[in-house]
TrEMBL record:
This is Shikimate dehydrogenase. PANTHER family: 3-OXOACYL-(ACYL-CARRIER-PROTEIN) REDUCTASE, SHORT-CHAIN DEHYDROGENASES/REDUCTASES FAMILY MEMBER. Belongs to the short-chain dehydrogenases/reductases (SDR) family. PROSITE patterns: ADH_SHORT.
Length: 265
């Protein structure tokens, strides 16, 4: 038996990067996984790419196109997952965006975009997953993607930091309010992970004059990481599978740092 066999899971932001890796690690341990993303075409391709592996581990695979800021689309994603797997046990609120700007240049649009996806998207995802779990009467697990930016400020990404502090706060508040329904809420906080998001951030930092050469920010961060290198998505998934598994049943309200010792908070 895999560590999460028979568990029905949704992962948002799963068309690439950390979300894809979370979903694939769950499949390796026998879970049924819905790969959900605003990029439906890519989410569907990821689901297809995992079908053979799922057949080997006894896992199930589906996908959904979803904008996590749209409650109706979130409900439709959950309905599709429940129609496919019969229930919802684990919900990863992982979709996230970043768009660096110098602090004085941050606009309302930039704030609303980042807070919308990372903050409101997390709240809606938690609420709708909880409603489904309460309706089932089964309890469940909600797992939110925070960041090292949940614990301290960083240059040129103020709305992102604010949005990720919000994720920690929603994790703690949700843990309190949902405990009586046998729903746990946890989070994990990666440091610097080599994904397409980070490549885009790197380009944006050059564009706004906050870096002089490509890769500069990542190099500078690397020197602050006790493990001596930035992470790959596979550095994150041991923890995320643990948080989805019965092994973590006594944890709630906690956000686990997975940052190679970049921050000691
Ligand atoms: P990524 O950009 O590679 O992947 C994010 C995915 O989210 C994309 O597939 C994108 O299409 C999807 N997405 C964006 N907006 C969406 C929306 N409104 N609805 C549904 N899906 C949407 O990013 P990643 O590096 O894999 O990051 C995943 C999560 O991890 C994010 O929450 C991010 O903030 C967090 N994180 C990343 C790092 C890092 O260094 N990469 C560090 C800490 C935290």
């Amino acid at each position: 038996m895999g560590r999460v066999s028979g568990r029905s899971c949704i992962v948002t932001g799963a068309a690439r990067g950390i979300g894809r890796a979370i979903g694939e690690a769950l499949i390796n341990e026998g879970a049924d996984v819905c790969f959900a993303d605003i990029n439906g075409e890519q989410a569907s391709a990821v689901a297809e790419a995992n079908r053979d592996r799922a057949a080997e581990t006894g896992a199930g695979v589906t996908w959904a196109q979803v904008d996590v800021t749209d409650r109706e689309q979130v409900r439709a994603m959950i309905a599709k997952t429940v129609a496919t797997f019969g229930k919802l046990d684990v919900k990863f609120n992982n979709a996230g965006v970043n768009k660096p700007m110098n602090f004085l240049d941050v606009t309302e649009d930039n704030w609303n975009f980042i807070m919308g996806v990372n903050g409101l998207g997390c709240l809606i995802g938690m609420q709708e997953a909880a409603r489904q779990m309460i309706g089932q009467g089964t309890g469940g697990k909600i797992i939110n993607t925070a960041s090292v930016a949940s614990r301290q400020g960083f240059d040129n990404v103020a709305p992102y930091c604010a949005s990720k502090w919000a994720v920690v706060s929603l994790t703690q508040s949700g843990a309190r309010d949902l405990a009586r329904h046998n729903i746990t809420v946890t989070g994990f906080a990666p440091g610097v992970v080599a994904t397409e998001m980070w490549e885009q951030v790197d380009r944006d930092l050059l564009d706004i004059g906050a870096a002089e050469r490509p890769g500069q920010a990542m190099e500078e961060f690397s020197s602050e990481i006790l493990r001596g290198r930035v992470a790959t998505p596979s550095d994150i998934t041991g923890t995320t599978t643990f948080l989805a598994s019965p092994e973590s049943d006594y944890m709630t309200g906690q956000v686990v740092m997975i940052d190679g010792g970049m921050t000691l908070v």
